[in-house]
Amino acid sequence: VDLPLSFAEAAKGCTKHISFGAKVPCDTC
């Protein structure tokens, strides 16, 4: 997964929320 991340966000820390469809259940599902 490629997420755009600016230097400022990386420096101060950030949280990115992502969602995607998976054809198989993950371990937490």
TrEMBL record:
It comes from the Eukaryota. InterPro entries: HSP40/DnaJ_pept-bd. One of its GO terms (biological process) is protein folding. This is Uncharacterized protein. It comes from Nymphaea colorata. One of its GO terms (molecular function) is unfolded protein binding.
